[in-house]
Amino acid sequence: MDEVMTTADAATLGRAALSMAQTASSVLLTPPTPPSDSSSPPSPLLPSNLPLISAFLAFALAQFLKLFTTWFKEKRWDSKRMVDSGGMPSSHSATVTALAMAIGLQDGTGSPAFAIAVILACIVMYDASGIRLHAGRQAELLNQIVCEFPPEHPLSSIRPLRELLGHTPFQVVVGGILGCIVAYLMRNTN
Q1: Whether the predicted model's global pTM rises above the 0.85 cut
Q2: Is 139 exposed, middle or buried (0-12, 13-18, 19+ CB in 10 A)?
Q3: Membrane-spanning residues where (predicted)?
Q4: What does 148-185 look like in DSSP terms, one character per residue?
Q5: Which of 26, 58, 140, 187 could form a disulfide with 182 if both were Cys (CB 3.0 to 4.6 A apart)?
Q6: What is the DSSP letter of 86?
Q7: What is the pLDDT of residues 120-140, one digit of tens each?
Q8: What is the distance between the alpha carbons of residues 189 and 78, in angstroms, rounded to a whole number?
Q9: Neighbouring C-beta atoms of residue 86, cutoff 10 Å
């Protein structure tokens, strides 16, 4: 025999489901209360995550060094280099090698986190010196082709493509060395 649900039963069921959902969301969204032990030190303002700090510091240092390498190469100061990709040293390589090195120094080279970080570093560095470098060279060639169009051509007034996307293998290696040095120095300061 089939049961028939009345509107009163549906309303009661709906109220019960709503009450359960509200209880679950309040449990999930309410932060846990800290223990009342007053002897615990306050949490630091900055996280003490060595791999994260090493990676961010290596990235910032590599981007800052691009100012000086641009001046050395082109004899001009270009502050836009601090936010651009490409150039010497590779900030992508510095970031991922600092991350992998710091994880290796902290957790050991046998940890799964180190294995993941090394694979990530290899992929990022391969991409920087391979795919992105060649995409930049293609952009340079396309920009030259567009410059040769007559002024009445519809594509002659388009904005040029960014040409400095990737890194030479030397720039990637220097970025990797910089990342390793930063992670090692950060580990020794703790």
Answers
A1: no
A2: middle
A3: 50-68, 111-128, 164-186
A4: TS-TTSTTTTSPPPP---S--HHHHHHHHHHHHHHHHH
A5: 58
A6: S
A7: 999 998 888 877 777 777 777
A8: 33
A9: 21
